[in-house]
Amino acid sequence: MAKYLLLKHYRGGPAAVNDVPMDQWTPEEISAHMRYMREFAARLEGTGEFVDAQALAPEGTFVRYDGEGRPPVTDGPFAETKDLIAGWMVIDVDSYQRAVELAGELSAAPGAGGKPIHEWLELRPFLQETPTITE
């Protein structure tokens, strides 16, 4: 089994087919989308392929260390993750092909008008082994 992270993006990836931003959806459309996500996760729980999923709140802060005795620096000159990542799901599957299959299915969650979003999801495997350095 291999773990994969499926990242849902607000923006930053290729545009979805149904590219209406969620803040323009009706309450019913949001409910239908969230129900699809819950049902998808429940099905994967049943097959033992679900690990975790979380939606992220829009607020957040970028933080970095700024040196001994200095307060942490917040925000910065870079795009903030809160502007890019909407949420994630972690799956544990038998193969890369199964991960792609599930990501494709999750991409079809309903959006505006009840139509599938067909959003692009970023699929990333978890690092399995620590890389070794050879001289």
TrEMBL record:
Highest taxon, organism lineage: Bacteria
Pfam families: YCII (PF03795)
Signal peptide, first to last residue: none
Domain YCII-related as annotated: residue spans: 17-107
Stated family: Belongs to the YciI family.
Protein name per UniProt: YCII-related domain-containing protein
Lineage: Bacteria, Bacillati, Actinomycetota, Actinomycetes, Micromonosporales
